Amino acid sequence: MLWATRISNIRLYQYHRPFFTVPHNFRTKLNFSSLSQPQGFCYLDEDCDDFLPWLEQKAGAKISSVLSIGKSAFGRSLFASKSIQTGDCILKVPYSVQITPDNLLPEIKSLLGDEVGNIAKLAIIILCEQKIRQKSEWAPYISRLPQPGEMHNTIFWSQDELEMIRQSSVYQETINQKSQTENDYLAIKRALRHDPEILGDITYEGFMHACSLDFLNHDGATEAIVLSDEDKQDSEVIADRDYGPGEEVLIRYGKFSNATLMLDFGFSLPYNIHDQVQVHFNVPHHDLLREMKIDLLQRHRTPPIKDVNGFNSSSESFTIKLVLILVS
Ligand SMILES: C[S@@+](CC[C@H](N)C(=O)[O-])C[C@H]1O[C@@H](n2cnc3c(N)ncnc32)[C@H](O)[C@@H]1O
């Protein structure tokens, strides 16, 4: 599902997805952007030649007449197949070909308690479809999902790798996310214990992988938007500028810091205009400069970008864009 993304506030790829796997309440405005390929490389992905025709047949409507699926340094990507003008609708995806928690089979839905959230429900759908392989009505999408080794979100990092970021807030967020995923997995196993064949031998690793499926390459520096229209029941992508044939077209997952991109999507950007660092300070009450330090921190803090992870803040935690050097 080349363009599927786990879209949370966005999420999703983010995540996140023609045939987006989208928790319904996560459907939101998407911003679409473009990065020209300075190296001019655009490899068409012949393995995906049948994907758009399949999707259009399923939707009973044209999805895009100006995009092709290709490969770039970011993996599978979208390219302009012909000239595109600013304001053109590049992509129109009816809700009917977007996987959402509503696609969960009623017999499974009725077994799950409220504690199972939308991302976990999407994971169950993906696992069920994977289980029936070519019989799945989503097979052309499911078979193109990234393989576990291709995913670099921090929840897939080994403990040794995580140790390298222990000082960062991403470390704790990763631990929290792992524990949430494990709780979801156990809740699902409990709920389906009387019908174990529904999911087959679902392992925690398989579940974790399905939970993280996102599809769409990201460029954070764009103001162009795509709207999901509840009345028209579709999601549209509007070009924010002109494109020449062969230029890569990217979506903005959200105004995400590198910490969030690393946590949720497994990459970070060298120049990220939305980057932020959350710093926890402990300014002791006996510190003679306490007031001055707190005042400095208050004045230079920046409102944290509200993103999908909701990195926790406390009165002693400040989100800054500038590096402050405090000398006591
Ligand atoms: C939603 S998928 C997009 C499709 C993906 N390229 C593929 O081959 O299936 C998201 C993944 O694409 C890659 N990606 C997307 N945007 C990127 C970027 N700006 N820089 C590096 N990797 C990116 C990351 O691996 C990310 O986890």
UniProtKB/TrEMBL annotation:
Family annotation (InterPro entries): SET_dom, SET_dom_sf, SETD3_SETD6_MTase
Pfam families per UniProt: SET (PF00856)
Designated name of the protein: SET domain-containing protein
Domain of life: Eukaryota
PROSITE patterns cross-referenced by the UniProt entry: SET (PS50280)
GO molecular function, one term: protein-lysine N-methyltransferase activity
Domain SET span(s) in chain numbering: 61-254
